[in-house]
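Quick illustration for those who missed Monday's session on complexes.
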Amino acid sequence: MNYDLNELSKGQQKTSTLAGLGKLFQLIAHERRNLLLALCAILVTSTINLTGPFVVGHTIDQYIAPHNGAVVANPYHGVLVNCGILLCLYFVSLVTSYLQTRLMGGVGQRMLFTLRNAVFNKLQQLPVAFFNQNKAGDLISRINNDTDKLNQFFSQSLMQFIGSIATMLGAGIFLIAINVKLGAAALAPGLLILFFTMIVSPWVKRTNAKSLKSVGGMSAEIQESLHNFKVIIAFNRRDYFRKRFDVANKENYRTAIGAGLANNIFMPVYTLFASIAQLAVLTFGIYLISEGEFTIGLLVSYFSYTTNFYNPLRQLATLWANFQTAMAAWDRISQILAMETDLATVSAGEKEASDALLEFKNVHFGYGDNKILHNISFKLEQGKTYALVGPTGGGKTTTASLIARLYDPQSGTVLLCGKDIRSYNAADRSKKIGFILQEPFLFTGTVRENILYGNELYAGYTDEQLEQAIKQANLGNLLAMFDDGLETKVLSSGNSISLGQKQLIAFMRAVLRNPDLLILDEATANIDTITEKLLSEILNNLPQHTTRVIIAHRLNTIENADEIFFVNSGEVVRAGSFNDAMNLLLKGKRVS
Ligand SMILES: Nc1ncnc2c1ncn2[C@@H]1O[C@H](COP(=O)(O)OP(=O)(O)OP(=O)(O)O)[C@@H](O)[C@H]1O
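Prediction with adenosine-5'-triphosphate bound:
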């Protein structure tokens, strides 16, 4: 299955803005109440803003320049009363604006929280193949940068966006209601703006998507060079990485310039059309006054309404660009959310009568087109020790990965206790199978935390109880190798402990889980011979029912195996005795 997000986005049909928005609102459906309250607040603010010009026009026509030329006895009283009314309205508008900002700030942050959780939880469900095909830096950029773009739009722009549209609609209604002919002249440039926006928006969204992608690419470069900094320094590859970063940075610079240009294209065009509308109102309005069809007060109101129509439109220019960026970010996030894991649990089906703990039946597997295992069949019985040997790149780790269901076969079946391994849920499977990887991964914390990680059995144990359990599992001598015992500090990426010590912790972690099947993939490669002997004794003393699968290049590690499999060129064959395995290796069978 193809999990490469950047590849998939090339062939993927573009989601429409409405469909995208629909999905996004589903995700924040629980915010309906706050969104409605904020909407009410914004509508009140817009209504107040629209009432202002009407009151001003009315005041002029009533008290300052009545169109019938009548003289008003005490104009100041009326003017002051109307000013008082306006002042009160402006205070109410201040309160509703504040409410709206507060409500939407909260909605934006909660949306960011929900979204990051949803993406992160999705990542936890995706199979190893997904992480093989996507760079960590790009995924981090999607979780951090892209979700933040959405948050920015929701917390800062959405209500302004709705407010601008509400004010525009209201102003448009007033413009038509006061005078249809003048209204048509004032609104005609608005139609041209709409037309322009519809044509240009898809390009703006595309340009922003490219820019976000290049941020992801740059983040992937940074992540890779930070992760491998020792190799870079040791092999003096700084120039190589500097050049790669330079390319990514230039690409980011180029796409960011493009996005900046696209995002700023609306403003000057909108401003031009807004000015044309003002001119049309002025010229046509004066003509109507001279014809006696209009009053000065109405023209003043009219100017305000035209401003009220075109100013939000100019604001919309910026907001629309933000919206396009947010939608491009949402496309990148929803790509992850839409990913289906191909390691789904299937129905158990009939349990096969099998004396084996684990069985491969005609298994074929490859990474993409690179076929690794061809028609493999073998059985692992309870309580026995198996060794997988073979040349480098022969397929040992791949076989072990299929045993632990890190991948599924492309055809054939892996049976665990007679049932398709795919019918076990992750919790039950990982209880039965313990896996010590070639490169053990430890979490930042203490030895204790790392041993307890995912180990529910010991969750409530005190230090004394845990030490007791460690002793009972014959792991006491291993723990004694750490100066501060269970409290020894561990850094996931640092050098606080050696690779061999990391392997010891991974070993203790796996053994304490007491699995039915324990796979050790080069688990003692970095451990001295004396400690290795100790580990071998611990393995021999595991409970009777435990099956062990040992992958090792050092043949002394597998001397005591009950059965040895030779893994090479897509085949897994019984090697017979230890000497036969030696001969096969010495014959120099190579990877085809
Ligand atoms: N994640 C992956 N994506 C693509 N190809 C892979 C991946 N992992 C392994 N391979 C390829 O599969 C083949 C078998 O690799 P595998 O790690 O199973 O060999 P191995 O016998 O365990 O080797 P080693 O003794 O060096 O650990 C190799 O050719 C390798 O390049």
